[in-house]
What we know:
By secondary structure, this protein is α/β, with parallel strands linked by helices. It has one domain: Rossmann fold (3-Layer(aba) Sandwich). It has helices spanning about 15-30, 50-55, 60-75, 90-100, 115-120, 125-130; strands at about 10, 35-40, 85-90, 105-110, 135-140. Helix 1 (about 15-30) links the parallel strand 1 and strand 2. The model has no long low-confidence stretch (mean pLDDT about 85).
Amino acid sequence: MAWLPRQKVIVPIDFSDTSMDAIPVAVELASSTADVHVLHVLVPLEGLSPGVVWGEVTDQSRETAVRDSFAKQAAKLNLPETRFDVRFGDPGTEITNYAKQVGADLIVIPSHGYGGLQRFVLGSVAERVIRHAECEVLVLRRSDAE
């Protein structure tokens, strides 16, 4: 497997420190910062959530907030050319679909390192991406994992 340079590198983020730390790794593996695609997947809104019922929370307001948050993070990381996209749905499915759509060479995804019951209850986005991606996947281990 040739590591460098990659033309299209996908980095799914959830705005945790672990996921934000994956962006510089992806930049190192890509041909340029313009070849890095950062993706955030929003899970669908629950129809009975108070914010939805009262009309204060919409998919559009959530997407706007996420885009604003990433713009601030990208400025801190000095990544003006990095592409950012927001999708709605199951994170594992949307990440692999996005990678296929853009013709990704590599997905760089952090692992939160959950095990046992937490993993059973929460599932593993990284595991679903590994199983379903049509490109190579690099899973980054948490820095505090043993």
